[in-house]
Amino acid sequence: MERIKIITIFGTRPEAIKMAPLVKELEGRNEIDNKVCVTAQHREMLDQVLNLFNISPDYDLNIMKNKQSLTGITTKVLEGLKEIFEKEKPNLILVHGDTTTTFAGALAAFYQKIKVGHVEAGLRTHNKYFPFPEEMNRKLTGAIADLHFAPTVGAKANLLSEGITEKDIFVTGNTVIDAMEFTVDNEYIFENKELNSIDYKNKKVIMVTAHRRENWGKGIENICIALKKIVEDNKDVELIYLVHLNPIVKDVVYKYLGREERVHLFPPLDTKETHNLMNKCFMVMTDSGGLQEEAPHLGKPVLVLRDVTERPEAINAGTVKLVGTDVDEILKQANLLINNPEEYEKMKKAINPYGDGNASCRIADAILYYYGFMEDRPEEFKLM
């Protein structure tokens, strides 16, 4: 067989972070001709990751516009990819996770009977509106996909329960752990001077992100009320909140926390700065999916500010606690970690269930195996 022609598609910063190490791995495989297509569902934050990993897309749909809708994103991706697929005629496209770019990319490939590989397949909350629209994006992508690269055995079990054939599922670990091998430096100096001035050694610095759609309104308000109280009650705590640029989030955060001592509000940082801030902080409080995987790799406990999570492995492993958006519950669990060294050490030392830094290699091997370039099925990621 000739070289396998692949188009790797992503459009947001979280996707780019997790696909970048895979792009680099595919570039090093002689049997694979990989091209990169970005939709730019998120423009500026996506470009930060492309620059960090020195990736120059072969195609850029550049679809982002102010107040874009899910319908608008979907139709633009479908239309843009149609022309690219007709020109390139790939053997396989790769999409990641659960964004609208992911689902629309898989659907566009299906319309032209092109095979689909789904990276980070099998995550489920089993509630189609939480998170919205991500839960249905990943389920619908899973229904279309031919190859399923599940990060964990739990994700594999979800796929099997939905009727996916076991031979088409490969447990690989999560590529975000691969990405951190490129980004984390224990001697890192931040570009932002204020971040460098914070006393990470003698203060308990809590890194916060909270911006998910299901938390808009009362959820974000409760989170901010709880954060304010945590800082007031614990004089050794400093808070760093990376505030999403969406006014629905930003206005609430600045209303409650804008004038608080020992609270530092920053716009979202680029990937390298974010990973190294995580590495220096005491713990993480977030509603992000990716941080639930990244922070435990660095030994940082995570309190998840959501009512449900599609990443139950972290809860079972003890690296993460699901605390929701109830003010009293957030306070209870945060103060427990701040003031109880035994509880903190228990979470800090729990083994990260999401990977060992070799997920991209496993995915590339699985593709070569699927297309007959390797005789033996690749060994799967197993939690030690």
Automatic annotation (TrEMBL):
It is an enzyme of class 5 (isomerase). It comes from the Bacteria. Keywords: Isomerase. Residues 24-367 form the UDP-N-acetylglucosamine 2-epimerase domain. Its EC number is 5.1.3.14. The keyword Isomerase applies. GO terms for molecular function: UDP-N-acetylglucosamine 2-epimerase activity. Pfam families: Epimerase_2. Belongs to the UDP-N-acetylglucosamine 2-epimerase family. This is UDP-N-acetylglucosamine 2-epimerase (non-hydrolyzing).
